[in-house]
């Protein structure tokens, strides 16, 4: 059994099951996602789109996480890698591979499933909360954190609920905040991965007037950690 250095300084067992994380921007790393995945024994393979890394094939991974970014899901002419990500997400869902899409990742997941992604009514940026739908309250990943919980928002686009998907959460500004497709593909418009190092990376990029209050950030981290543990616990083991 081989031990290898992984992203964020974690140690991973090289022959463990592998989650690929698609990262679009230097400052938008996996944060808590990497730590919780490692806790559950998964290799975390971060693919940096901003550095020209290749998008893998769905049959080469055991799980997929697609993170946020400043581009839009419909910006494929300017960002050709997005087209490859859309194909990967569609193929992963067809293969019942566990998927977690966060912010842009949720919008890409919706688009990959045939739904429309479009500009939202206004930017939603900063700390807030989402409220679970009745189906969300029954969901094994999100439900135990409900009926409402704190999150961090940073988006200006929204999406239609994909055909066959289950609507899980909404906010006052955006009806579509979370959905599940099949048993193991989740799209979260909001952020739950905000640990302290990630908050430091985000601080200088946030719009004027938006601050990362530590008490509120810690509450988001506590909730996010619980949600992510449940997500990775649901991943089927070979």
Describe this structure in words.
This protein has about 240 residues and is of the alpha/beta class. The protein has one domain (about 5-235): Class I glutamine amidotransferase (GATase) domain (Rossmann fold, 3-Layer(aba) Sandwich), CATH 3.40.50. The chain is built from 6 helices and 11 strands. The strands form 2 sheets. It has a 9-stranded mixed beta sheet, sandwiched between helices. It has a two-stranded antiparallel ribbon with strand order 1-2. The longest helix has 20 residues, at about 215-235. Mean pLDDT is about 90; it is low at about 1-15.
Structural class: alpha/beta
| Inertia-based shape | globular
Tell me roughly what share of residues is in helical segments: 25-40%
What is the class in the CATH system? Answer: Alpha Beta
Main sheet summary:
9 strands, mixed
Strand content: 25-35%
């Amino acid at each position: 059994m081989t031990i290898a250095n992984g992203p964020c300084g974690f140690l991973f067992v090289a022959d463990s099951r592998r989650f690929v994380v698609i990262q679009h921007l230097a400052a938008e790393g996996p944060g808590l996602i990497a730590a919780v995945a490692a806790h559950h024994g998964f290799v975390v393979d971060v693919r940096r789109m901003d550095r020209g890394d290749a998008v893998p094939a769905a049959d080469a991974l055991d799980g997929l996480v697609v993170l946020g970014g400043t581009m839009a899901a419909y910006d494929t002419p300017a960002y050709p890698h997005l087209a490859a990500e859309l194909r990967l997400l569609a193929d992963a869902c067809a293969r019942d591979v566990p998927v977690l899409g966060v912010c842009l990742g949720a919008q890409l997941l919706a688009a990959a499933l045939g739904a429309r992604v479009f500009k939202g009514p206004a930017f939603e940026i900063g700390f807030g909360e989402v409220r679970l739908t009745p189906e969300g309250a029954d969901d094994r990943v999100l439900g135990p954190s409900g009926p409402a919980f704190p999150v961090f928002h940073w988006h200006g686009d929204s999406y239609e609920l994909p055909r066959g998907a289950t609507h899980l959460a909404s906010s006052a500004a955006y009806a579509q905040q979370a959905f599940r497709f099949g048993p193991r593909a989740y799209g979260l418009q909001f952020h739950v991965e905000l640990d302290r190092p990630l908050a430091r990376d985000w601080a200088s990029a946030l719009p004027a007037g938006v601050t990362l209050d530590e008490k509120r950030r810690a509450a988001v981290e506590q909730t996010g950690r619980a949600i992510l543990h449940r997500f990775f616990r649901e991943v089927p083991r070979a």
